[in-house]
Design brief:
alpha+beta; Pdz3 Domain; Syntrophin; seven-stranded antiparallel sheet; about 500 residues; PH-domain like; cytoplasm; rod-shaped; 7 helices
Amino acid sequence: QDFRTSRTHRICLLQDAKDILMIQEQDVICVSGEPFYSGERTVTIRRQTVGGFGLSIKGGAEHNIPVVISKISKEQRAELSGLLFIGDAILQINGINVRKCRHEEVVQVLRNAGEEVTLTVSFLKRAPAFLKLPLNEDCACVPSDQSSGTSSPLCDSGLHLNYHPNNTDTLSCSSWPTSPGLRWEKRWCDLRLIPLLHSRFSQYLPGSDLCRQNAFQVIAVDGVCSGIIQSVSAEDCMDWLQAIATNISNLTKHNVSIDQSGSVDFQIVYMGWTEEREQDSLQDRMYTPKFLALRGSSLYKFIAPPVTTWDWTRAEKTFSVYEIMCKILKDSDLLDRRKHCFGVQSESGEDLYYSVELECDLTLWEKAFQTATFLEVERIQCKTYACVLESHLMGLTIDFGMGFVCFDAATKAVLWRYKFSQLKGSSDDGKSKIKFLFQNPDTKQIEAKELEFSNLFAVLHCIHSFFAAKVACLDPLYVGSQAATSAVATTSGTGKSKYTT
Protein backbone atom coordinates (compact mmCIF):
# COMPACT_ATOMS: atom_id res chain seq x y z
CA GLN A 1 0.00 0.00 0.00
CA ASP A 2 1.05 3.62 -0.51
CA PHE A 3 1.05 5.66 2.68
CA ARG A 4 0.84 9.37 1.93
CA THR A 5 1.10 12.36 4.18
CA SER A 6 1.34 15.82 2.66
CA ARG A 7 3.88 15.49 -0.16
CA THR A 8 5.58 12.49 1.37
CA HIS A 9 5.14 9.21 -0.50
CA ARG A 10 5.94 6.05 1.38
CA ILE A 11 5.59 2.38 0.65
CA CYS A 12 4.15 0.88 3.80
CA LEU A 13 2.90 -2.40 5.14
CA LEU A 14 -0.49 -2.60 6.84
CA GLN A 15 -1.33 -5.34 9.29
CA ASP A 16 -4.91 -5.52 10.50
CA ALA A 17 -4.78 -7.41 13.79
CA LYS A 18 -7.90 -8.10 15.84
CA ASP A 19 -7.62 -5.01 17.99
CA ILE A 20 -5.02 -2.81 16.31
CA LEU A 21 -4.06 -1.53 12.87
CA MET A 22 -0.30 -1.53 12.44
CA ILE A 23 1.25 0.77 9.85
CA GLN A 24 4.87 -0.09 9.18
CA GLU A 25 7.64 1.27 7.00
CA GLN A 26 11.09 0.08 6.12
CA ASP A 27 13.99 1.47 8.08
CA VAL A 28 17.63 0.59 8.62
CA ILE A 29 18.44 -0.02 12.26
CA CYS A 30 21.53 -0.96 14.16
CA VAL A 31 21.00 -4.42 15.65
CA SER A 32 24.36 -4.69 17.44
CA GLY A 33 27.04 -2.39 18.73
CA GLU A 34 26.69 1.24 19.80
CA PRO A 35 26.65 3.60 16.80
CA PHE A 36 27.61 7.20 17.47
CA TYR A 37 24.49 8.33 15.61
CA SER A 38 22.01 5.70 14.53
CA GLY A 39 20.55 7.83 11.74
CA GLU A 40 23.74 7.92 9.70
CA ARG A 41 26.31 5.29 8.72
CA THR A 42 29.80 5.64 7.35
CA VAL A 43 31.37 2.96 5.17
CA THR A 44 34.62 2.83 3.22
CA ILE A 45 34.77 0.73 0.03
CA ARG A 46 37.34 0.30 -2.75
CA ARG A 47 36.85 0.10 -6.46
CA GLN A 48 37.10 -3.27 -8.10
CA THR A 49 38.54 -3.89 -11.54
CA VAL A 50 35.20 -5.29 -12.66
CA GLY A 51 32.08 -3.64 -11.33
CA GLY A 52 33.65 -0.60 -9.71
CA PHE A 53 31.88 0.16 -6.43
CA GLY A 54 29.08 -2.27 -7.20
CA LEU A 55 26.16 0.12 -6.78
CA SER A 56 23.94 2.42 -8.83
CA ILE A 57 22.22 5.69 -7.93
CA LYS A 58 19.12 7.70 -8.78
CA GLY A 59 17.83 11.14 -7.88
CA GLY A 60 19.39 14.48 -7.15
CA ALA A 61 18.53 18.00 -6.01
CA GLU A 62 16.62 18.66 -9.24
CA HIS A 63 14.03 16.17 -7.96
CA ASN A 64 13.91 17.52 -4.40
CA ILE A 65 15.48 14.30 -3.18
CA PRO A 66 19.08 13.39 -2.35
CA VAL A 67 20.93 10.97 -4.57
CA VAL A 68 19.78 7.51 -3.52
CA ILE A 69 21.30 4.06 -3.93
CA SER A 70 18.96 2.21 -6.31
CA LYS A 71 20.89 -1.01 -6.98
CA ILE A 72 23.54 -3.03 -5.17
CA SER A 73 25.34 -5.70 -7.17
CA LYS A 74 25.72 -9.17 -5.74
CA GLU A 75 29.13 -10.10 -4.32
CA GLN A 76 30.48 -6.61 -5.00
CA ARG A 77 32.09 -4.21 -2.52
CA ALA A 78 28.89 -2.33 -1.65
CA GLU A 79 27.10 -5.53 -0.70
CA LEU A 80 30.05 -7.08 1.10
CA SER A 81 30.35 -4.03 3.34
CA GLY A 82 27.04 -4.96 4.99
CA LEU A 83 26.33 -1.28 5.63
CA LEU A 84 24.73 -0.15 2.39
CA PHE A 85 21.10 -0.68 1.37
CA ILE A 86 18.85 0.17 -1.53
CA GLY A 87 17.12 3.36 -0.44
CA ASP A 88 20.17 4.86 1.29
CA ALA A 89 20.66 8.57 0.60
CA ILE A 90 24.30 9.55 0.01
CA LEU A 91 25.02 12.50 2.31
CA GLN A 92 28.82 12.82 2.04
CA ILE A 93 31.54 11.48 -0.25
CA ASN A 94 35.04 11.60 1.26
CA GLY A 95 33.81 14.35 3.57
CA ILE A 96 32.24 16.40 0.77
CA ASN A 97 28.60 17.33 1.55
CA VAL A 98 26.46 16.25 -1.43
CA ARG A 99 23.02 16.49 0.21
CA LYS A 100 21.89 19.27 -2.14
CA CYS A 101 23.90 18.31 -5.22
CA ARG A 102 22.41 17.51 -8.57
CA HIS A 103 22.61 14.01 -9.95
CA GLU A 104 25.42 14.69 -12.41
CA GLU A 105 27.44 16.56 -9.77
CA VAL A 106 27.38 13.49 -7.48
CA VAL A 107 28.40 11.28 -10.41
CA GLN A 108 31.40 13.54 -11.05
CA VAL A 109 32.43 13.53 -7.37
CA LEU A 110 32.35 9.72 -7.37
CA ARG A 111 34.28 9.56 -10.65
CA ASN A 112 37.04 11.64 -9.04
CA ALA A 113 36.92 9.96 -5.64
CA GLY A 114 39.90 7.70 -6.26
CA GLU A 115 40.28 4.02 -5.60
CA GLU A 116 38.88 4.24 -2.07
CA VAL A 117 35.74 6.16 -1.14
CA THR A 118 34.14 6.86 2.21
CA LEU A 119 30.38 7.31 2.05
CA THR A 120 28.13 8.76 4.74
CA VAL A 121 24.60 7.52 4.15
CA SER A 122 21.18 7.48 5.80
CA PHE A 123 18.18 5.37 4.85
CA LEU A 124 15.61 7.58 3.12
CA LYS A 125 12.15 6.38 4.09
CA ARG A 126 10.38 8.16 1.26
CA ALA A 127 12.78 6.86 -1.38
CA PRO A 128 10.92 3.65 -2.39
CA ALA A 129 8.22 5.52 -4.32
CA PHE A 130 10.95 7.43 -6.20
CA LEU A 131 12.90 4.25 -6.88
CA LYS A 132 9.82 2.70 -8.50
CA LEU A 133 10.13 5.11 -11.45
CA PRO A 134 10.61 3.09 -14.65
CA LEU A 135 14.19 2.86 -15.90
CA ASN A 136 15.08 4.12 -19.34
CA GLU A 137 17.51 1.57 -20.70
CA ASP A 138 18.61 3.95 -23.45
CA CYS A 139 20.26 6.34 -21.03
CA ALA A 140 21.83 3.89 -18.61
CA CYS A 141 25.39 4.97 -17.90
CA VAL A 142 28.33 3.03 -19.26
CA PRO A 143 31.98 2.91 -18.08
CA SER A 144 33.93 6.16 -18.38
CA ASP A 145 35.93 5.07 -21.40
CA GLN A 146 32.63 4.83 -23.32
CA SER A 147 30.55 7.41 -21.48
CA SER A 148 29.43 10.60 -23.13
CA GLY A 149 29.77 12.29 -19.79
CA THR A 150 26.03 12.68 -19.34
CA SER A 151 23.43 10.60 -17.53
CA SER A 152 19.73 10.87 -16.75
CA PRO A 153 18.89 11.52 -13.10
CA LEU A 154 15.75 9.41 -13.58
CA CYS A 155 17.90 6.45 -14.53
CA ASP A 156 20.43 4.41 -12.64
CA SER A 157 23.97 5.70 -12.86
CA GLY A 158 26.19 2.64 -12.54
CA LEU A 159 29.10 3.56 -10.32
CA HIS A 160 31.66 1.34 -12.00
CA LEU A 161 33.06 4.58 -13.39
CA ASN A 162 36.72 5.44 -13.94
CA TYR A 163 37.97 1.96 -13.31
CA HIS A 164 41.58 1.25 -14.26
CA PRO A 165 42.36 -1.92 -16.22
CA ASN A 166 45.72 -2.16 -14.51
CA ASN A 167 44.14 -2.16 -11.04
CA THR A 168 44.25 -5.72 -9.80
CA ASP A 169 43.50 -4.89 -6.18
CA THR A 170 41.65 -7.60 -4.32
CA LEU A 171 39.36 -7.29 -1.32
CA SER A 172 41.23 -5.88 1.64
CA CYS A 173 40.33 -5.06 5.20
CA SER A 174 40.06 -1.39 4.28
CA SER A 175 36.83 -2.18 2.41
CA TRP A 176 35.14 -3.29 5.61
CA PRO A 177 33.49 -0.97 8.15
CA THR A 178 35.89 0.77 10.50
CA SER A 179 33.72 -0.46 13.43
CA PRO A 180 33.28 -4.20 12.85
CA GLY A 181 31.12 -4.44 15.99
CA LEU A 182 28.27 -2.61 14.30
CA ARG A 183 25.62 -4.57 12.41
CA TRP A 184 22.80 -2.95 10.50
CA GLU A 185 19.64 -4.47 9.06
CA LYS A 186 16.77 -3.22 6.97
CA ARG A 187 13.54 -4.05 8.78
CA TRP A 188 9.84 -3.20 8.84
CA CYS A 189 9.32 -0.88 11.80
CA ASP A 190 6.10 0.35 13.38
CA LEU A 191 5.17 3.79 12.07
CA ARG A 192 1.78 4.07 13.77
CA LEU A 193 -0.40 1.81 15.88
CA ILE A 194 -4.13 2.55 15.71
CA PRO A 195 -6.32 0.91 18.41
CA LEU A 196 -9.46 -0.23 16.59
CA LEU A 197 -11.95 -0.18 19.49
CA HIS A 198 -14.32 2.73 18.79
CA SER A 199 -12.09 3.98 15.98
CA ARG A 200 -13.62 5.30 12.78
CA PHE A 201 -12.57 5.30 9.16
CA SER A 202 -13.60 7.35 6.15
CA GLN A 203 -13.12 7.39 2.41
CA TYR A 204 -14.40 10.96 2.18
CA LEU A 205 -12.52 14.22 2.34
CA PRO A 206 -13.25 15.51 5.87
CA GLY A 207 -16.62 17.21 6.14
CA SER A 208 -17.45 16.81 2.45
CA ASP A 209 -19.28 14.44 0.13
CA LEU A 210 -16.17 14.04 -2.06
CA CYS A 211 -14.82 10.50 -1.99
CA ARG A 212 -11.11 9.82 -2.27
CA GLN A 213 -10.11 7.44 -5.05
CA ASN A 214 -9.05 4.09 -3.58
CA ALA A 215 -7.98 5.76 -0.33
CA PHE A 216 -9.12 6.07 3.26
CA GLN A 217 -7.91 7.03 6.72
CA VAL A 218 -8.46 5.54 10.16
CA ILE A 219 -8.84 7.74 13.25
CA ALA A 220 -8.51 6.25 16.74
CA VAL A 221 -10.79 7.25 19.59
CA ASP A 222 -7.96 9.38 21.03
CA GLY A 223 -7.57 11.24 17.73
CA VAL A 224 -4.46 9.46 16.44
CA CYS A 225 -4.80 9.29 12.65
CA SER A 226 -3.30 6.79 10.24
CA GLY A 227 -2.89 9.42 7.58
CA ILE A 228 -4.24 8.77 4.09
CA ILE A 229 -3.77 5.17 3.02
CA GLN A 230 -3.78 4.84 -0.76
CA SER A 231 -4.58 1.42 -2.20
CA VAL A 232 -3.48 0.15 -5.57
CA SER A 233 -7.04 -0.61 -6.73
CA ALA A 234 -10.65 -0.15 -5.71
CA GLU A 235 -10.84 -3.86 -4.88
CA ASP A 236 -7.84 -3.65 -2.54
CA CYS A 237 -9.29 -0.57 -0.88
CA MET A 238 -12.64 -2.27 -0.30
CA ASP A 239 -10.95 -5.41 1.06
CA TRP A 240 -9.09 -3.29 3.62
CA LEU A 241 -12.22 -1.37 4.58
CA GLN A 242 -14.24 -4.56 5.00
CA ALA A 243 -11.51 -6.14 7.15
CA ILE A 244 -11.11 -3.06 9.35
CA ALA A 245 -14.89 -2.62 9.66
CA THR A 246 -15.29 -6.28 10.68
CA ASN A 247 -12.67 -6.00 13.39
CA ILE A 248 -14.12 -2.73 14.73
CA SER A 249 -17.57 -4.32 14.80
CA ASN A 250 -16.32 -7.43 16.58
CA LEU A 251 -14.50 -5.32 19.18
CA THR A 252 -17.63 -3.25 19.75
CA LYS A 253 -19.78 -6.35 20.20
CA HIS A 254 -17.28 -7.83 22.63
CA ASN A 255 -17.12 -4.59 24.59
CA VAL A 256 -20.91 -4.38 24.70
CA SER A 257 -21.22 -7.96 25.97
CA ILE A 258 -18.83 -7.18 28.84
CA ASP A 259 -20.55 -3.92 29.85
CA GLN A 260 -24.11 -5.16 29.39
CA SER A 261 -26.35 -4.55 32.37
CA GLY A 262 -28.89 -7.10 33.54
CA SER A 263 -31.76 -4.62 33.09
CA VAL A 264 -33.29 -4.32 29.64
CA ASP A 265 -33.54 -0.56 30.28
CA PHE A 266 -29.77 -0.25 29.86
CA GLN A 267 -28.93 -2.96 27.34
CA ILE A 268 -27.02 -1.78 24.28
CA VAL A 269 -28.47 -3.01 21.00
CA TYR A 270 -25.91 -1.37 18.74
CA MET A 271 -23.53 1.57 18.57
CA GLY A 272 -20.99 3.00 16.18
CA TRP A 273 -19.71 5.99 14.21
CA THR A 274 -21.74 7.85 11.61
CA GLU A 275 -21.41 11.25 9.99
CA GLU A 276 -24.27 13.71 10.44
CA ARG A 277 -25.13 16.14 7.69
CA GLU A 278 -25.30 19.68 8.98
CA GLN A 279 -28.72 21.26 8.40
CA ASP A 280 -27.15 24.68 7.91
CA SER A 281 -24.00 23.35 6.35
CA LEU A 282 -21.15 25.61 5.41
CA GLN A 283 -19.32 25.01 2.17
CA ASP A 284 -16.30 23.46 3.88
CA ARG A 285 -18.13 21.44 6.52
CA MET A 286 -21.16 19.50 5.39
CA TYR A 287 -20.69 16.50 7.68
CA THR A 288 -19.62 16.05 11.29
CA PRO A 289 -18.67 12.73 12.94
CA LYS A 290 -21.24 11.54 15.48
CA PHE A 291 -21.28 8.42 17.62
CA LEU A 292 -24.78 6.89 17.85
CA ALA A 293 -25.89 4.26 20.37
CA LEU A 294 -29.18 2.38 20.67
CA ARG A 295 -29.44 1.61 24.36
CA GLY A 296 -32.58 0.59 26.22
CA SER A 297 -35.40 3.01 25.44
CA SER A 298 -33.24 5.66 23.78
CA LEU A 299 -31.13 6.61 20.82
CA TYR A 300 -28.08 8.53 22.08
CA LYS A 301 -26.04 10.98 20.00
CA PHE A 302 -22.47 11.70 21.15
CA ILE A 303 -19.52 13.65 19.84
CA ALA A 304 -17.25 10.90 21.27
CA PRO A 305 -17.90 7.27 22.28
CA PRO A 306 -19.15 6.69 25.85
CA VAL A 307 -16.43 4.92 27.82
CA THR A 308 -17.63 5.26 31.41
CA THR A 309 -21.09 5.11 33.00
CA TRP A 310 -20.91 8.86 33.53
CA ASP A 311 -20.43 9.40 29.78
CA TRP A 312 -23.97 8.19 29.11
CA THR A 313 -25.34 11.21 30.95
CA ARG A 314 -23.35 13.54 28.70
CA ALA A 315 -25.00 12.71 25.39
CA GLU A 316 -25.45 15.59 22.99
CA LYS A 317 -29.05 14.48 22.50
CA THR A 318 -31.34 11.54 23.31
CA PHE A 319 -34.51 10.31 21.60
CA SER A 320 -37.16 7.79 22.68
CA VAL A 321 -36.61 4.87 20.34
CA TYR A 322 -40.33 4.21 19.79
CA GLU A 323 -41.05 7.88 19.04
CA ILE A 324 -38.58 8.28 16.18
CA MET A 325 -38.68 7.05 12.61
CA CYS A 326 -35.65 5.58 10.85
CA LYS A 327 -35.63 5.35 7.08
CA ILE A 328 -32.97 3.77 4.89
CA LEU A 329 -32.55 6.14 1.96
CA LYS A 330 -32.66 4.98 -1.64
CA ASP A 331 -30.55 6.56 -4.37
CA SER A 332 -33.39 8.92 -5.31
CA ASP A 333 -33.57 10.17 -1.71
CA LEU A 334 -29.88 11.02 -1.32
CA LEU A 335 -29.05 14.69 -0.86
CA ASP A 336 -25.54 14.63 -2.32
CA ARG A 337 -22.82 12.28 -3.58
CA ARG A 338 -22.57 10.30 -0.36
CA LYS A 339 -23.91 6.78 -0.50
CA HIS A 340 -25.19 4.54 2.33
CA CYS A 341 -27.33 7.09 4.17
CA PHE A 342 -30.30 6.90 6.50
CA GLY A 343 -32.64 9.46 7.97
CA VAL A 344 -34.05 9.79 11.46
CA GLN A 345 -37.14 11.89 12.11
CA SER A 346 -37.39 12.86 15.77
CA GLU A 347 -40.52 13.16 17.91
CA SER A 348 -40.46 16.92 17.26
CA GLY A 349 -40.41 16.42 13.49
CA GLU A 350 -36.71 17.30 13.12
CA ASP A 351 -35.08 15.46 10.22
CA LEU A 352 -31.58 14.14 10.87
CA TYR A 353 -29.44 12.79 8.02
CA TYR A 354 -26.63 10.28 8.56
CA SER A 355 -23.99 8.71 6.37
CA VAL A 356 -22.05 5.49 6.95
CA GLU A 357 -19.10 4.16 4.99
CA LEU A 358 -20.21 0.71 3.82
CA GLU A 359 -23.42 -0.94 2.71
CA CYS A 360 -23.00 -3.56 5.43
CA ASP A 361 -22.96 -0.74 8.02
CA LEU A 362 -26.29 0.48 6.66
CA THR A 363 -27.76 -3.01 7.01
CA LEU A 364 -26.55 -3.24 10.62
CA TRP A 365 -28.13 0.10 11.53
CA GLU A 366 -31.43 -0.88 9.89
CA LYS A 367 -31.57 -4.15 11.80
CA ALA A 368 -30.52 -2.40 15.03
CA PHE A 369 -33.36 0.14 14.82
CA GLN A 370 -35.88 -2.64 14.16
CA THR A 371 -34.58 -4.73 17.05
CA ALA A 372 -34.43 -1.80 19.49
CA THR A 373 -37.97 -0.76 18.59
CA PHE A 374 -39.35 -4.28 19.01
CA LEU A 375 -37.65 -4.77 22.38
CA GLU A 376 -38.85 -1.44 23.73
CA VAL A 377 -42.46 -1.84 22.58
CA GLU A 378 -42.51 -5.34 24.01
CA ARG A 379 -41.23 -3.92 27.29
CA ILE A 380 -43.59 -0.95 27.72
CA GLN A 381 -46.67 -2.70 26.18
CA CYS A 382 -48.68 0.53 25.98
CA LYS A 383 -48.28 4.28 25.62
CA THR A 384 -50.88 6.99 26.33
CA TYR A 385 -50.96 10.46 24.79
CA ALA A 386 -53.13 13.43 25.77
CA CYS A 387 -55.37 14.68 22.97
CA VAL A 388 -58.35 16.93 22.33
CA LEU A 389 -61.74 15.97 20.86
CA GLU A 390 -64.23 18.78 20.33
CA SER A 391 -62.52 20.93 22.99
CA HIS A 392 -62.60 18.07 25.51
CA LEU A 393 -59.42 16.65 27.00
CA MET A 394 -59.10 13.02 26.03
CA GLY A 395 -56.50 10.29 26.15
CA LEU A 396 -55.42 7.87 23.42
CA THR A 397 -53.76 4.65 24.52
CA ILE A 398 -51.83 2.58 22.02
CA ASP A 399 -51.87 -0.89 23.59
CA PHE A 400 -49.82 -3.78 22.28
CA GLY A 401 -52.56 -6.26 23.16
CA MET A 402 -55.83 -4.34 22.68
CA GLY A 403 -54.99 -1.82 19.95
CA PHE A 404 -56.37 1.76 20.11
CA VAL A 405 -58.39 2.97 23.10
CA CYS A 406 -59.79 6.52 23.34
CA PHE A 407 -61.14 7.64 26.75
CA ASP A 408 -62.30 10.72 28.59
CA ALA A 409 -59.40 12.12 30.62
CA ALA A 410 -61.66 13.16 33.52
CA THR A 411 -64.02 10.20 33.86
CA LYS A 412 -61.83 7.50 32.25
CA ALA A 413 -64.90 6.42 30.30
CA VAL A 414 -63.97 4.65 27.04
CA LEU A 415 -65.36 6.36 23.94
CA TRP A 416 -64.16 3.84 21.40
CA ARG A 417 -61.65 1.05 20.90
CA TYR A 418 -60.34 -0.73 17.80
CA LYS A 419 -57.81 -3.48 17.14
CA PHE A 420 -54.70 -2.84 15.12
CA SER A 421 -56.15 -4.93 12.30
CA GLN A 422 -59.13 -2.57 12.07
CA LEU A 423 -57.00 0.48 11.22
CA LYS A 424 -57.28 0.84 7.45
CA GLY A 425 -55.62 4.19 7.02
CA SER A 426 -54.87 7.58 8.50
CA SER A 427 -53.95 11.09 7.51
CA ASP A 428 -52.68 14.18 9.29
CA ASP A 429 -52.35 17.89 8.64
CA GLY A 430 -48.63 17.93 9.47
CA LYS A 431 -49.28 20.09 12.54
CA SER A 432 -51.55 18.56 15.18
CA LYS A 433 -54.56 16.68 13.80
CA ILE A 434 -54.81 12.99 12.91
CA LYS A 435 -57.77 11.34 11.21
CA PHE A 436 -58.00 7.56 11.77
CA LEU A 437 -60.01 5.32 9.46
CA PHE A 438 -61.20 2.18 11.25
CA GLN A 439 -63.37 -0.63 9.87
CA ASN A 440 -66.37 -1.64 11.98
CA PRO A 441 -66.13 -5.42 12.48
CA ASP A 442 -69.91 -5.84 12.29
CA THR A 443 -71.03 -3.43 9.57
CA LYS A 444 -67.69 -3.46 7.67
CA GLN A 445 -68.17 0.28 7.28
CA ILE A 446 -65.24 2.72 7.61
CA GLU A 447 -65.54 4.95 10.66
CA ALA A 448 -63.48 8.15 10.85
CA LYS A 449 -62.12 9.36 14.19
CA GLU A 450 -60.27 12.68 14.40
CA LEU A 451 -58.09 13.73 17.34
CA GLU A 452 -55.77 16.67 17.99
CA PHE A 453 -52.34 16.20 19.62
CA SER A 454 -49.68 18.60 20.87
CA ASN A 455 -46.91 16.14 19.84
CA LEU A 456 -48.08 14.92 16.44
CA PHE A 457 -44.86 13.26 15.24
CA ALA A 458 -44.31 11.39 18.49
CA VAL A 459 -47.78 9.85 18.18
CA LEU A 460 -47.31 8.94 14.50
CA HIS A 461 -43.94 7.35 15.15
CA CYS A 462 -45.27 5.48 18.18
CA ILE A 463 -48.10 4.01 16.10
CA HIS A 464 -45.55 2.97 13.49
CA SER A 465 -43.38 1.32 16.17
CA PHE A 466 -46.29 -0.62 17.65
CA PHE A 467 -47.38 -1.81 14.21
CA ALA A 468 -43.86 -2.95 13.37
CA ALA A 469 -43.52 -4.74 16.71
CA LYS A 470 -46.91 -6.39 16.20
CA VAL A 471 -45.83 -7.80 12.87
CA ALA A 472 -42.53 -8.93 14.40
CA CYS A 473 -44.39 -10.68 17.18
CA LEU A 474 -46.45 -12.63 14.64
CA ASP A 475 -43.41 -13.41 12.49
CA PRO A 476 -40.11 -13.93 14.37
CA LEU A 477 -38.23 -13.67 11.10
CA TYR A 478 -39.47 -10.09 10.79
CA VAL A 479 -36.82 -8.57 13.02
CA GLY A 480 -33.82 -7.83 10.84
CA SER A 481 -35.79 -8.28 7.60
CA GLN A 482 -37.17 -5.76 5.15
CA ALA A 483 -40.75 -6.33 6.34
CA ALA A 484 -40.69 -3.28 8.59
CA THR A 485 -40.81 -0.86 5.72
CA SER A 486 -43.79 -2.62 4.13
CA ALA A 487 -45.80 -3.04 7.34
CA VAL A 488 -46.48 0.69 7.61
CA ALA A 489 -46.08 2.97 4.60
CA THR A 490 -45.34 6.66 5.18
CA THR A 491 -45.65 9.41 2.60
CA SER A 492 -43.33 12.31 3.39
CA GLY A 493 -43.00 15.80 1.99
CA THR A 494 -46.77 16.38 1.63
CA GLY A 495 -47.69 16.96 5.26
CA LYS A 496 -49.74 13.75 5.17
CA SER A 497 -48.80 10.39 6.67
CA LYS A 498 -50.69 7.25 5.76
CA TYR A 499 -50.58 4.05 7.79
CA THR A 500 -51.88 0.74 6.48
CA THR A 501 -51.62 -2.81 7.73
